[in-house]
Amino acid sequence: MPACCFLIVLLVFSGFSTCHGHGTENETVLGNSTVTPLLLVSFDGFRADYLKKYSFPNLEKFFSDGVLVDHVSNVFITKTFPNHYSIVTGRYAESHGILSSNMYDPDANKTFSLSNDFDSFWWEQATPLWVSIQQKGFKSAAAMWPGTDIKIHNLTASYFLKYQHNVPFQERVDNLTKWLSQDLVKFATLYWEEPDYSGHLYGPDNIKEMTKALKQVDDHIGYLIDKLNQTGLWSNINIIITSDHGMVQCAPDRLIRLDDCIGPKNYTLVDMTPVSAILPLTNVTYVYDLLKKCNPHMKAYMKEDIPDRLHYKNNRRIQPIILVADEGWTIVRNGSLPRFGDHGYDNTLPSMHPFLAAHGPAFRKGYRLNSINTVDIYSLMCHLLRLEEQPNNGTFTNTKCMLASQWCVNLPEVIGIVIGVFMVLTTLTCLIIIMKNKGPPSSRSFARLELQDDDDDDALIG
Ligand SMILES: [Zn+2]
């Protein structure tokens, strides 16, 4: 059926296809490779709707000539380390092993915290992108991205700055652009602590302070673009600017005090708020029963009952009981509110979502996408770097329309094209039938005559 074949061909080339279409991005040929360098930038705690509420002249210029994704659905728990590791591994927290800011591994009897994160043991349930690209013979560079200064599968980033929160943004960028100017450096990561720091300190509803913090973030983006221009990197580098999570306002009248519900001798508090990790020291059911009725704004889950949608169950580092506070509520043992803004809550809450923007030769210009998942960013980056993906939870098709090399049409366009093609084919078919009917005497009459001749011949022979 020619019409069907035509439609199938059309659909295959219209973006329904899952093929990965390599090779049409502009590329710089550096050394023996044809991989365009990729810079991945994270501004910690950049809530998606800050873009609507505040002014970002530099960032807007960046994505108006590139791509903007309004919402990124991040991974539970919506904290810094789990999400930064999900971005570079494509895995949910339960699958990469960096489950929170504070962890306890019962098999190894080891503890992890933000100030005690240097043991490779914690990081090796997955392989981050900078390690994979180095295993292929390229180099990576990193300015403070979580994990880059730690040996993972025996490799740190090729060039890195040891984590120090007080290293200025400009110093981080200056080092990165110096490293990126080298041929083999193909993947670079840059991390900055704002607007997370101000969000915690003042709360995201503090317009005056957040305006200041976000103006500084935008100035930093301006500095980054200027520096990339000065060093000649700007036109030949793909850049992704994103974040790990959002932020929500907390308040002194939204406190959940565990001491009001359970004696401290009954459990060890491995991680605090807004998702508490509880290691019971007495009977698990007894501890759970006390906690589940502790406060209507806090849910208690036995590990095996944690909802599948959170992807936060299948890892030994998840404690036997977890407590999840409602949006804007804070769990404490006792005492007062520790900070005015927080994150870590359910990852379906829009207040927990960050954004993503991208710019560079590989990306479409002026393109806008409603949402992707944090775990999708990894396969996009693997595609950009021509790197084979490690097993992950992301989907390339969710991000591929961001790329200039992919022909993507939306569903209404596809339906329109299919109807249009069907109408054209129907019209053509009708025309052919009409033409046939109106044409000269058909060859069948000649055939009949020939047959008659043959019959005559046969009769004569007979
Ligand atoms: Zn934070």
From TrEMBL:
Leading EC class: hydrolase
Domain of life where this protein originates: Eukaryota
EC number annotated for this UniProt entry: 3.6.1.29
CDD domains given in the database record: Enpp
Signal peptide range: 1-21
Residues passing through the membrane, by range: 414-435
Main location: membrane
Keyword RNA-binding on entry: no
Subcellular location: Cell membrane
Catalytic activity: P(1),P(3)-bis(5'-adenosyl) triphosphate + H2O = AMP + ADP + 2 H(+)
InterPro entries per UniProt: Alkaline_phosphatase_core_sf, Phosphodiest/P_Trfase
Entry keyword set: Blood coagulation, Cell membrane, Disulfide bond, Glycoprotein, Hemostasis, Hydrolase, Membrane, Metal-binding, Signal, Transmembrane, Transmembrane helix, Zinc
GO biological process terms on file: blood coagulation
Topology of the protein relative to the lipid bilayer: Single-pass type I membrane protein
Cofactor(s) in the UniProt record: Zn(2+)
Sample GO molecular function, one term: bis(5'-adenosyl)-triphosphatase activity
Pfam families, per database record: Phosphodiest (PF01663)
Single GO cellular component term: plasma membrane
Family: Belongs to the nucleotide pyrophosphatase/phosphodiesterase family.
Cited function: Hydrolyzes extracellular Ap3A into AMP and ADP, and Ap4A into AMP and ATP. Ap3A and Ap4A are diadenosine polyphosphates thought to induce proliferation of vascular smooth muscle cells. Acts as a procoagulant, mediating platelet aggregation at the site of nascent thrombus via release of ADP from Ap3A and activation of ADP receptors.
Protein name, per record: bis(5'-adenosyl)-triphosphatase
Annotated organism of origin: Acipenser oxyrinchus oxyrinchus
This protein's encoding gene: enpp4
